[in-house]
Model the fold of this input.
Amino acid sequence: MATTITVIPGDGIGPEVTDATLTILEAAGAELEYDEQLAGLAGVDALKNPLPEGTLDSIRRNQVCLKGPLTTPVGTGFRSINVAIRKEFDLYANVRPAMTMVPGGRYEDIDLVLIRENTEGLYVGVEHYIGLEGDPRAAAESVMIITRFGAERIVRYAFEYARANDRTKVTLAHKANILKYTQGLFLDVGREVAREYEGEVEFEDRIIDATAMQLVVNPYDFDVLVMENMFGDILSDLMAGLVGGMGLAPAGNIGKDTAMFEAVHGSAPDIAGQGIANPCSLTLSAAMLLEHVDQPDAARRIRDALRTTLEDEATRTRDLGGTCNTKEFTDAVVRNLD
Ligand code: NAI
Done:
């Protein structure tokens, strides 16, 4: 029986990369039905609401969502809808694979996964100015919050992910040498959880700055990485850079009941409507979604077809040095499905 998922095409190039992705999903034999919903600027235009109640209801009902990029106005207007959705459904694990798709880059055959804690750390938004001697902004303070509950569930998620995907090692990256309380708690809890997987999944911890350097020097030394929110935000982009940039980076945001898979890049207003966007990020996210709903064969076929298409310079999109537009690229991926 087909699984119904919520689809939010999003803003800018969102509808273009979503169309391409749905075409590829159908050709790959994915058993999915689509409940299309609005959010972001598209929601404001149609319903005067960047996150309409109907969209939230749909995600609540279907528990799985595929989301294109949403425009967040700078300065004024509404807050990030991406963050609002993550909060609403407590999508605590941000899963960011970095996999070589285009040969000839800095490294070949990279296959890493970063698991980023998505709800705590410095990004809880507890911050304020401190006024001093007539200067209302003499200082500013942000609070980093780490809870035993949050640390435990994210590290456990990383180990369960490793176990389910035949991966051998989990690296916990931290700054416990300086931030002895917050990062110290994260590390201590991580070590406790790791003990439960002893003999099955290897565990190591590393200081975050050394991890950043080692990822660039020898990425093959890593497998699954887990860390708190801001460190994960930064290193997941570093890892995307190792394999060709954000245009190829998929992401899953996973909670206890609900999961949202999304393109990592933004709405690219500079090229929106031109039919030249690269749909790979959203299509790879859709492959993760297929695995989540237990359709791994369709996921594998899509990844293989994307890889074959990207190997040939003649069938790459412009952002990757090719000449294809979105439709020509999509047609090539469909042709390359086994
Ligand atoms: P962006 O990722 O939209 O664009 C950066 C550059 O990359 C642009 O030159 C763009 O043309 C190019 N690019 C991005 N995706 C591409 C694709 N699939 N194919 C070909 N080229 C691509 O980042 P920017 O310009 O900083 O943000 C634009 C808007 O997107 C902002 O409103 C921002 O808030 C939003 N945004 C949304 C995200 C999300 O929904 N997850 C993530 C990042 C930004």
About this structure: The chain has a mean pLDDT of 95. The chain is about 40% helix and 20% strand. The radius of gyration is 20 Å. The domain at 111-242 is CATH 3.40.718.10 (Isopropylmalate Dehydrogenase).
